[in-house]
Specification:
Length: 84
């Protein structure tokens, strides 16, 4: 598929998802209190900035933004038994 065909196929779904994000951001803004300094809001704002960029690796960058660094001792942190 070329870019136009892909846009034709994806447009309504993308539009719906953007509307969902905008609605959630509006609800947060209208609610009592201030979350501007909350690290989660900072990550959401950064994710939106990444999505708006022209970089071809947006999905990867957003995924990494919300991911933990790999820790080879993660099983111990969650008290999981080691494989034997």
């Amino acid at each position: 598929m070329d870019a136009k065909e892909t846009l034709d196929r994806e447009f309504l779904e993308i539009r719906s998802r953007i509307l969902d994000v905008a609605s959630a951001m509006d609800r947060i803004q209208r609610a009592d209190g201030d979350v501007a300094d909350d690290p989660r809001m900072q990550k959401l704002n950064e994710a939106i900035r990444i999505a708006m960029s022209s970089d071809g690796h947006r999905a990867e960058k957003v995924q990494l933004l919300f991911s933990r660094e790999y820790d080879e001792h993660w099983k111990e942190q969650f008290s999981l038994p080691s494989a034997t």
